Amino acid sequence: MSEEQDQSPVPEQPRQVPGKAKSAKSKEAQEQALTARRSQSIWPFALAVALMVVLMGLITHPIVFGIGLLLAAAAIIGWGLERR
Fold first, then answer.
1. What is the DSSP letter of 39?
2. 29-33 contacts, C-beta under 8 A, 24 or more apart
3. Are 57 and 65 in contact (CB under 8 A)?
4. Alpha-carbon gap, residue 76 to 70, rounded angstroms
5. In angstroms, what CA-CA distances link 46 with 41, 52, 73?
6. How do residues 16-45 score in pLDDT, each as one tens digit?
7. Angstrom distance (rounded) from CA 77 to CA 41
């Protein structure tokens, strides 16, 4: 076998130019991207739970239905007022 067939392919890594550091803007953009992933909203989950309570209220009792509607309204308002 030739040498080319014996060697497994190695993915190329980006080359860094000596003497040039990454700019502050690119570091800042990377930090913002990481922060955006970490700070996910709880409001979609709260709305899903509230809608489950609404559906359970349709099956069980009107008071449970009313509580579910209040929770759903609070979740929608909270999601709308959330700062990004």
1. -
2. none
3. yes
4. 10
5. 10, 10, 10
6. 555 555 566 777 777 766 665 557 899 999
7. 13
Higher pLDDT, 10 or 69: 69
Encoding tokens for residue 61? 């009792």
Q: What are the Cα distances from residue 84, in Å, to 25, 32, 34, 40, 41?
A: 20, 11, 14, 10, 9
Tokens 């502050």 map to which residue? 24
Token digits of residue 54: 């609404």
List alpha helices for 1-84, DSSP H. Answer: 3-6, 24-38, 43-59, 62-81
| Distance, C-alpha 17 to centroid of its chain | 34
- The dihedral built from the CA positions of residue 82, 44, 55 and 53, taken in this order, carries a sign that is negative
pTM for this prediction = 0.55
Which residue reads 């359970």 in tokens? 56
Tokens (6 digits) for 53:
């309570």
